[in-house]
C-alpha cells in the first residue's frame, strides 16, 4: 500500500519498510497481558485496531518518518501512505471471523464478516510477488507489478464476500429443507481457501456443523448435531468469563463439563474436536472458594489427517470430518 502511494517520490525500500512497520503496529497488542486468557482473547484487536485511534496516529508517524529521512516536503504524502497502511489493517482483520473492535472507544462491539480465513495464500501471494518485483526492479514496471498485486488481492477479498453470500443462501435452503429452525447461522471459510466453507447453526439446545464446497455436485449439506450445554448455560449464565465469550462470539459458543470442571468454547474457530479457544473455568469447589482465572486449553487437529481431508472435501468429495470429540447428538427441529 505505501509503495503504491509513494510511487517514485522516495526509495521503494523506504516505503516498503515503513509500510511493514505501520502494518505491524496494531498487532503488537498481542504482547499485552490483560490478566487472564479470556481477557487476552477479547481485548486483542481492541484499541490498537480502532479506526479512530489509528487515524490520529497516522500524522504523528508520518512526521517521524519524514523527519528521519529528511523528506519534510513529502509529509502529506507520507501521511496518506501510512494512514492507509494503518487503516486497512483492521479493515482486513474485519474480513476474518475473529472480531475487531473498529469503533473503540465508542463501542467494544467485535465486528467480523468472516469471509476470509486468517491465512490465505491466494490473498497473500499476489501482494508478496508485487512487492518483491517492485523492490528488485526499482522501476515504473516494478511499481506496476505492485499495483497489480494490490488489485488482485482486493478482487480476491470481493470474491470471498460474494462466495460467502452464495454459501449462506445454500445453507439456509438446506436447513429449511431439513426442517431445522435455528437462531444463528455462521458461514466462514475452511483454512487456506474460499472454496470450502464451514457452517455452524445454533438452536437453544444444540449446534449443527456442516461443510459446503463450491465444487459440490449437490446443495444438500450433511449436518451433524451437538449439545450446546443449555442447562450449564442457564446454571452458569452469571459467570463473567462465560458471559464474555458468549458476547464476543455473538452467541456461537457452548458449555461443557468434564471431570468436574466447567468449560466454555468459542465455536467459530477450529473444527469439532479441535477448537482454538476452549477455556477451563475451574471446578465447582474452586469457583465456590473465590474467583477463578480462566485458562485456555486449545485443541489442535492432527494436520497429517486434517489436511488430506480438507483437500478431498474442497474438491467436492462428501467425506465426513476426520474427528469428533463426542458422538453427534440426535437432531431436533
Number of strands: 10
Q: Unreliable stretches, pLDDT < 50, 5 or more residues?
A: none
Strand coverage percent = 5-15%
Main sheet: strand order: 1-2-3-4
Overall pLDDT confidence: 93
Outline type: globular
Helix content: 40-55%
Structural class category: alpha+beta
Q: Count of helical segments? A: 11
SSE order: HHHHHHHEEEEHHEEEEEHEH
Largest sheet: 4 strands, antiparallel
N- to C-terminal distance: 49 Å
Computed CA radius of gyration, to the nearest angstrom: 23 Å
What are the key terms here?
333 residues, 45% helix, four-stranded antiparallel sheet, alpha+beta, single chain, globular, 11 helices
What does it look like?
- The protein is α+β, with helices and mostly antiparallel strands and 333 residues long.
- Among the domains are: 2-113, no CATH class; 228-324, no CATH class.
- 45% of the residues lie in helices and 15% in strands.
- The strands form three sheets. It has a four-stranded antiparallel beta sheet with strand order 1-2-3-4. A four-stranded antiparallel beta sheet has the order 5-6-9-10.
- α2 (12-24) packs across α5, α4 (51-68) runs antiparallel to α5 (75-94) and α6 runs antiparallel to α7 (140-178).
- It is globular.
- It starts with a helix and ends in a 19-residue tail after the last helix.
SSE topology sketch:
Layout: H1 2-6, H2 12-24, H3 37-42, H4 51-68, H5 75-94, H6 121-137, H7 140-178, E1 184-189, E2 196-202, E3 206-213, E4 224-227, H8 230-235, H9 240-248, E5 253-258, E6 261-266, E7 270-271, E8 274-275, E9 278-283, H10 284-289, E10 295-296, H11 303-314
Antiparallel strand pairs: 1-2, 2-3, 3-4, 5-6, 6-9, 7-8, 9-10
